[in-house]
C-alpha cells in the first residue's frame, strides 16, 4: 500500500485503504498481521548511534501511523449452483446483476457451510442430520470421502458461483491486487466482466494467490467480482478429514480462507520475517527477510526502510523488470541487528512471549511503494536427533519436552476467533505446550493466538489420501501431471505464511510415510525457496528412513484405541510405549462426553442404549464403533446398566488412560523426547479422540491429562511400582518431599513411605522410592502420592485405583490401532464403595471479565469419596458454564480429607445468571451451593 512516511515530509501517494474502507458496507478493513497486544521494546540495541555504526540507517526515519493495509471482502456475498444458471462469468461479474434469489453468505465459507448458516439444512451436528444433506449418502458411513469421486447426483459435482460487489475509491494510479488465502479447489475468476485468472492457474487448496487486477479494476467506481469454484476430485491435493469425522458433501469446496484487496506502487513487499540466532540470552543476531516483487516492465531502484521495535535500518535494492527478489538484511552488514539483552520469545512456562513489530517500507523517489508488517518474536528453535533418530527440540538453547495434542479445525471450516482463544487457554490449562496440525491449516487468527500464548505449533500435510498416494495408490489414486507443481507451490505458500510465526515449531511434509525421492526433492526445493529456517521432517512415523534426509525424528506405531495404563510402561517391543523416542500421535480411542454434552447432539430416544447414532459420532474404519472401549469399560468396572452408569465408568477409564499416557512419557524423559496426544479436539460433536469435547466441556480425560502434566509432578509406574518425580520447568527444583501411601477398598492404610530432600533437574525423571509388595490388599486398592516443597506446600498429588488382578496384553497381535487386552484389571469392588456426602462451600472472587470461584470440598465420611466432580452452572438446574477450568477435578478424597479447588470462567459465558456449584461423584450424593 502506498502511503506517506510522515504527512509533514512526504505527500500521500495513494489513498489509503483505511480511508475507503468506511465506504464499503460489504467489506471490513483491518490489519490481520498485527494482532492485539502491546508492541515489544528491544532494550539497548547495538548500533543505533549512527556515529559508531556502519549502518546506512536514517535516524530521522519513522514510519507513519499505519492504517489498515488489507481491505477484506467478507460481507455481501451471494452463492449459487451453476446448474440451470446459463450465465457466464463475464455477465455475472457486471455491476447490478441480480442475486436476490441466491444464498447470501459471508466469506470465508464453504458452500455447504453457507447453506447451513442460511438455514437450508438442520443442524448437521445433531443426530444423523449430516446424512440428510444431499450428496452425503453418496459415501458410506465411516469412510474417507477423499477416496471417492462425487456421483453425478451430487449437487456439488458441478461448479458453484461466489459473487460480490464493492466500491473501489480512486487510488492515484496505484496497482490493485486481489488476494485469495485459500480456494478449494480450483476457480475461474472474473472482475468487472474481465477474466483475471483461470482454473489452470487457480488450483490447490493450500496455495495463496495475489492477482494483479489493475487492468480490470475500476477505481472510483463500483466493482463486481464473480468466482466459479470447482470441488476437488479424488486425485486433487485437497483437505481430508480422514477417519476423524464425516466430510461435507461438497468436500469443503469454496472460499475457505480470506479474500482481500491491497494497492501498491511498482514494488510489492510480502512475507516479512526475522531469523534469529540466540547464542545466549544476552545477545541475539537478527536477519530480516522478505519477498520483493517488481510488477512493472522497467527496473526499479528503491530503499527498504524498516523498523524492528525501536531499531531502524535501511538498505538500497534494485529489481529488474518483473523480478521477484528475496530480501535479506543481515547483522553482518547492519550491526544494529545485533541486539544486547534481547526480549526473547519463549514457550509458556519457560519465559515471556515477547512480540515485536516489524515494518518494512519500499521507498521509491520519496514515496512508499508498499508496506509490509509482521508481529515477530526473537527466538531460535533447534532440533537434534537423540540416539541418531528421535527429535529433541531447544528454544533459545533451552531443551523443551514436547507435550501436545492433534488439532483439527471445524468440520465445515467455520472459524470462530473467540473459540480460538478459548481452546488455546484449555491447552495451557492441561499443561500442554504444543499442538500438531495435520493438514486443514486453519486461519491466521489461530496462529496469532499461539504466538501470544506461547503454544508451539507443529504443522504439515495430511495422511491417508492423495497427499500420500504412494502408500495405497489403488485406493488413493495417483498424482496427475498437474499435482507436482501444485504440491510444490502449496508447500511454499504455507511455509512463507508460517515462517514469521514465533510459535512455529517445524513442518512435516510427510505424515504416515515419507515421499519418494522425486517428490521429496520438490518439497525440499520449496523449503529452500521459502527460506524456511525451522526443522523439516520427512514423515511423522519411523518407517524406512528417507534416503535423502534420513530418520524423521518420530515414531508412530499407535495405539489409537483402548489399551490399559500398564501398556505404556510394559512395552518392550518397540511399539507405542515410553521405552523411548518422540511419538507423533498416540491415543486411547473413545472419549465419551459427560451426559450434559451427549444430550446436546443425541436425540432423546437415542441416548441409551448405545446405537447407530452413537456410532455415527465415532470415526471411520476400526474406529466406527465403541466395541473395544465398552469391552474394556465393562471388563474393568462391571456391566454398564444405564446411561449414567456408562458415562461414569467412561470418565474413570479416560482419566486413568490419559494420565498414564502422558505420565509414562514424562517418566521416560531422557529416553523420550515428546508426545502428541491423538487428539486434542474434534471438528464436530464426537465420542472419539479428544481432550475436551466439542462444547469445550472438560471431563475425565481432560483432568487426567492435566494431572499428568503438572510442571513438577510425582508419578507411579504401573509396571515396576516405582515412584518418580519429574520437572518440566526452566530450572532444577530442590528440597522436595515425596510421600507414597497404599489403602485398601475400605480406606485402611496398608503402607506409607516418604523420601525427603529430593532435587529434580530438567533432563530426566528422578527416582524417589519403590512401593514393595503389600500384604492384605483387597482386589481393588489405592495408591496415593503427594509431593511437597520445602515450605510443606503441596506441589502435586496423585491418586491411583489399582487391582491385584493385572491387565494382560497380547503383544503378538499388536497392530497399528493397538493391541488386544486378554485380561482386564478387576476394579469392580469400586461398586461397593459406601455412599458419601462431601460438604461443599464456595466463595466468589473477582467481578471483572474473568470470574473465579474458590470451592472447598471435605469428605466427612468413613469411606473414600471417589472421582468427585464439581462444575459451575448458570443457576440451580441450569447448563454448565462453558468453558470453565478447575485447578483440579475428578478428585478422590480420603476420610476426613479437605481440598480447595479454584474454578475460573468468563463472566460473559455466565451471562446474568447466578453461579451455582454442583458436586457429583462415583459414590457421592449430588449437592450444590451458591457462593
TrEMBL record:
Location of the Exo-beta-D-glucosaminidase Ig-fold domain: 816-923
Gene3D superfamilies: Galactose-binding domain-like (2.60.120.260), Glycosidases (3.20.20.80), Immunoglobulins (2.60.40.10)
Signal peptide bounds: 1-21
Domain Beta-mannosidase-like galactose-binding residue range list: 99-236
Keywords associated with the record: Glycosidase, Hydrolase, Signal
Record has Magnesium as a keyword: no
Region Disordered, residue ranges: 30-67
All residue ranges annotated as the Mannosidase Ig/CBM-like domain in the record: 722-803
InterPro entries given in the database record: Beta-gal/glucu_dom_sf (IPR036156), Beta-mannosidase-like_N2 (IPR054593), EBDG/EBM (IPR043534), Galactose-bd-like_sf (IPR008979), GH (IPR017853), Ig-like_fold (IPR013783), Ig-like_GH2 (IPR006102), Ig_GlcNase (IPR041351)
Domain Glycoside hydrolase family 2 immunoglobulin-like beta-sandwich span(s) in chain numbering: 269-379
Coiled coil: none
Biased composition (Low complexity): 49-60
Family: Belongs to the glycosyl hydrolase 2 family.
Name this protein carries in UniProt: Exo-1,4-beta-D-glucosaminidase
Amino acid at each position: 500500500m502506498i502511503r506517506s512516511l510522515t504527512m509533514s515530509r512526504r505527500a500521500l501517494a495513494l489513498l489509503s485503504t483505511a480511508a475507503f474502507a468506511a465506504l464499503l458496507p460489504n467489506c471490513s478493513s483491518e490489519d490481520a498481521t498485527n494482532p492485539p497486544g502491546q508492541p515489544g521494546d528491544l532494550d539497548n540495541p547495538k548500533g543505533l548511534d549512527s556515529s559508531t555504526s556502519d549502518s546506512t540507517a536514517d535516524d530521522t526515519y519513522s514510519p507513519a501511523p499505519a492504517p489498515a493495509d488489507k481491505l477484506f471482502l467478507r460481507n455481501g456475498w451471494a452463492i449459487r449452483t451453476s446448474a440451470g444458471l446459463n450465465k457466464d462469468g463475464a455477465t455475472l461479474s457486471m455491476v447490478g446483476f441480480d442475486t436476490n434469489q441466491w444464498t447470501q453468505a459471508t466469506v470465508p465459507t464453504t458452500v455447504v457451510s453457507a447453506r447451513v448458516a442460511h438455514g437450508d439444512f438442520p443442524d448437521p451436528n445433531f443426530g444423523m442430520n449430516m446424512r440428510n444433506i444431499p450428496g452425503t449418502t453418496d459415501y458410506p458411513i465411516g469412510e474417507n470421502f477423499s477416496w471417492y469421486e462425487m456421483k453425478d447426483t451430487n449437487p456439488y459435482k458441478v461448479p458453484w458461483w461466489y459473487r460480490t460487489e464493492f466500491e473501489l475509491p480512486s487510488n492515484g494510479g496505484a496497482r490493485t491486487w486481489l488476494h485469495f488465502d485459500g480456494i478449494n479447489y480450483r476457480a475461474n475468476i472474473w472482475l468487472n466482466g474481465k477474466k483475471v485468472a483461470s482454473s489452470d492457474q487457480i488450483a490447490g487448496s493450500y496455495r495463496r494467490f495475489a492477482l494483479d487486477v489493475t487492468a480490470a479494476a475500476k477505481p472510483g467506481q463500483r466493482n463486481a467480482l464473480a468466482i466459479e469454484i470447482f470441488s476437488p476430485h479424488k486425485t486433487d491435493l485437497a483437505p481430508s478429514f480422514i477417519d476423524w469425522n464425516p466430510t461435507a458433501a461438497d468436500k469443503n469446496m469454496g472460499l475457505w480462507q480470506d479474500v482481500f484487496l491491497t494497492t501498491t506502487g511498482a514494488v510489492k513487499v510480502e512475507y516479512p520475517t526475522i531469523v534469529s540466532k540466540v547464542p545466549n540470552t544476552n545477545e541475539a543476531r537478527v536477519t530480516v527477510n522478505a519477498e520483493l516483487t517488481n510488477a512493472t516492465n522497467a527496473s526499479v531502484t528503491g530503499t527498504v526502510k524498516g523498523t524492528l521495535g525501536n531499531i531502524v535500518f535501511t538498505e538500497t535494492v534494485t529489481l529488474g523488470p518483473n523480478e521477484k527478489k528475496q530480501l535479506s538484511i543481515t547483522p553482518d552488514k547492519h550491526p544494529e541487528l545485533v541486539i544486547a539483552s534481547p526480549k526473547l520469545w519463549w514457550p509458556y512456562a519457560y519465559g515471556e512471549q515477547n512480540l515485536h513489530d516489524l515494518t518494512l517500507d519500499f521507498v521509491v523517489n520519496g514515496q512508499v511503494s508498499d508496506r509490509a508488517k509482521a508481529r515477530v518474536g526473537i527466538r531460535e528453535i533447534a532440533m537434534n536427533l537423540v540416539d541418531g533418530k528421535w527429535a529433541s527440540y531447544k528454544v533459545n538453547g533451552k531443551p523443551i519436552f514436547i507435550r501436545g495434542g492433534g488439532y483439527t479445525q471445524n468440520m465445515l471450516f467455520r472459524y470462530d476467533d473467540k473459540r480460538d482463544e478459548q481452546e488455546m487457554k484449555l491447552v495451557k490449562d492441561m499443561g500442554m505446550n504444543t499442538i500438531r496440525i495435520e493438514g486443514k491449516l486453519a486461519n491466521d487468527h489461530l496462529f496469532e493466538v499461539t504466538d501470544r500464548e506461547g503454544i508451539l505449533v507443529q504443522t504439515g500435510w495430511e495422511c491417508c489420501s492423495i497427499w500420500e498416494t504412494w502408500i495405497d495408490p489403488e485406493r488413493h489414486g495417483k498424482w496427475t501431471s498437474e499435482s507436482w507443481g501444485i504440491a510444490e507451490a502449496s508447500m511454499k505458500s504455507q511455509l512463507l505464511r508460517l515462517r514469521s510465526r514465533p510459535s512455529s515449531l517445524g513442518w512435516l511434509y510427510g505424515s504416515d510415510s515419507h515421499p519418494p525421492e522425486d517428490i521429496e526433492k520438490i518439497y525440499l526445493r520449496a523449503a529452500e525457496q521459502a527460506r524456511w529456517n525451522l526443522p523439516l521432517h520427512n514423515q511423522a512415523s519411523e518407517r524406512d528412513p528417507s534416503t535423502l534426509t534420513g530418520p524423521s525424528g518420530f515414531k508412530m506405531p499407535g495405539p489409537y484405541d483402548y489399551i490399559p495404563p500398564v501398556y505404556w510402561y510394559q512395552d518392550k517391543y518397540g511399539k507405542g510405549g515410553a521405552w523411548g523416542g518422540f511419538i507423533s500421535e498416540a491415543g486411547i480411542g473413545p472419549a465419551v462426553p459427560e451426559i450434559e454434552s451427549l444430550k446436546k447432539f443425541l436425540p432423546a430416544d437415542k441416548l441409551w442404549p448405545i446405537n447407530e447414532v452413537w456410532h455415527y459420532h465415532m470415526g471411520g474404519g476400526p474406529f466406527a464403533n465403541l466395541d473395544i472401549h465398552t469391552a474394556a469399560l465393562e471388563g474393568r468396572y462391571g456391566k454398564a446398566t444405564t446411561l449414567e452408569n456408562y458415562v461414569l465408568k467412561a470418565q474413570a477409564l479416560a482419566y486413568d488412560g490419559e494420565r498414564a499416557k502422558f505420565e509414562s512419557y514424562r517418566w521416560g524423559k531422557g529416553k523420550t523426547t515428546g508426545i502428541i496426544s491423538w487428539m486434542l479436539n474434534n471438528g464436530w460433536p464426537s465420542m472419539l479422540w479428544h481432550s475436551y469435547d466439542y462444547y469445550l466441556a472438560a471431563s475425565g480425560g481432560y483432568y487426567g491429562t492435566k494431572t499428568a502434566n503438572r510442571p513438577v509432578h510425582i508419578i507411579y509406574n504401573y509396571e515396576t511400582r516405582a515412584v518418580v518425580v519429574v520437572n518440566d520447568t526452566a530450572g532444577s527444583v530442590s528440597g522436595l518431599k515425596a510421600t507414597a501411601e497404599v489403602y485398601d477398598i475400605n480406606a485402611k492404610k496398608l503402607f506409607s513411605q516418604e523420601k525427603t530432600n529430593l532435587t529434580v533437574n530438567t533432563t530426566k525423571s528422578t527416582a524417589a522410592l519403590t512401593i514393595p509388595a503389600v500384604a492384605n490388599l483387597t482386589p481393588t486398592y489405592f495408591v496415593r502420592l503427594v509431593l511437597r516443597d520445602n515450605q510443606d506446600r503441596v506441589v502435586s498429588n496423585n491418586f491411583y485405583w489399582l487391582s491385584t488382578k493385572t491387565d494382560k496384553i497380547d503383544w503378538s497381535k499388536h497392530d497399528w490401532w493397538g493391541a488386544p487386552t486378554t485380561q482386564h484389571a478387576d476394579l469392580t469392588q469400586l461398586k461397593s464403595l459406601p455412599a458419601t456426602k462431601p460438604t461443599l462451600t464456595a466463595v466468589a472472587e473477582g467481578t471483572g471479565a474473568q470470574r473465579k470461584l474458590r470451592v472447598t470440598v471435605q469428605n466427612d465420611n468413613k469411606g473414600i469419596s471417589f472421582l468427585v466432580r464439581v462444575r459451575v452452572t448458570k443457576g440451580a438446574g441450569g447448563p454448565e458454564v462453558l468453558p470453565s477450568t478447575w485447578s483440579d477435578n475428578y478428585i478422590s478424597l480420603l476420610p476426613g480429607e479437605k481440598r480447595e479447588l479454584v474454578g475460573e470462567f468468563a463472566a460473559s459465558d455466565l451471562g446474568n445468571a447466578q453461579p451455582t456449584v454442583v458436586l457429583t461423584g462415583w459414590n457421592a450424593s449430588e449437592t450444590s451451593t451458591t457462593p
